[in-house]
Amino acid sequence: SRVEVRGMEHVEQVVRDGKGAIFVSGHFANWELLAAGLVQRGLAVMTVYRAASNPLADKIITELRHAMGTPNQAPKGPAGARMLLSWMNARNYVAMLSDQKMNDGVEADFFGRPAMCPPAAAQLARRFGCPIIFASIRRTTGAHFIIEVQEPFYVPETKNRAGDILAGVNEINRRLEEFIRAHPAQWLWLHRRWPD
Questions:
Q1: Cα–chain-centroid distance for residue 79?
Q2: How far apart are the C-alpha atoms of 140 and 162, rounded to whole Å?
Q3: If we measure between CA atoms, which residue out of 136, 137, 119, 116 comes closest to residue 192?
Q4: What's the distance, CA 164 to chain centroid?
Q5: Are 26 and 99 in contact (CB under 8 A)?
Q6: pLDDT digits over 106-149, tens only?
Q7: Are residues 123 and 102 in contact, defined by beta-carbon separation less than 8 angstroms?
Q8: How much is the pTM?
Q9: Using one digit for the tens of pLDDT, what is the confidence trace for 67-102?
Q10: Cα separation of 152 and 55, whole Å?
């Protein structure tokens, strides 16, 4: 009752298509509610996460996610990548935050400046021929939220794999920028996003 979802017709269309999908977002408002909302609507979702440095804190966070209904979690790294590939082979759904700085990622434009960006969403979408769906969440008043699901898009599939992936990353960044410009107070980012 505290979360209004707009754009569920896009999710319903993807479910009918049966290809699976990659949901992407950023560190907006209470971002953990995004994946929980998808699971509550019957989607098999695996989230991608970076383990907290403190093992006790990581255990608490993992248990809270399980309690919210998102038990399928792939840690960043080789083991998590194998989990994701197996999960996507079954045409399921993956949710990840794509606003992080990733030193070994791809350089792309972010707010008019070069930034190292995570390519995983674009790589997976291209490999499995499934769409990317951008979703955002914002707090309205108190503990009330609006989730907005945008129309899906596909990563190009040409002979230029690197160019295709960069095109996908650029589209994700464009949508991140659009939301952040409209709702800057909803974005939480604590690290240096740009090299200079």
A1: 19
A2: 39
A3: 116
A4: 18
A5: yes
A6: 999 999 999 999 999 999 999 999 999 999 999 999 999 999 99
A7: no
A8: 0.92
A9: 877 778 888 888 888 999 999 999 999 999 999 888
A10: 36
Cα(71)–Cα(47) distance, rounded to whole angstroms?
9
Strands 113-117 and 106-110, how do they pair? antiparallel
CA distance 116 to 15: 32
Q: Which of 112, 81, 78 is nearest to 96 (CA)?
A: 81
Place of tokens 């993956």: 94
Give CA–CA dist 137/115, Å, rounded: 23
What is the mean pLDDT of the segment spanning 11-16?
92
Task: Provide DSSP, the chain.
Answer: --EEEE-HHHHHHHHHHTS-EEEEE-SBSSTHHHHHHHHHTT--EEEEE---SSHHHHHHHHHHHHHTT---EEESSHHHHHHHHHHHHTT-EEEEE--S--TTSEEEEETTEEEEE--HHHHHHHHHT--EEEEEEEE-STT-EEEEEPPPB----SS-HHHHHHHHHHHHHHHHHHHHHH-GGGB---S--S--
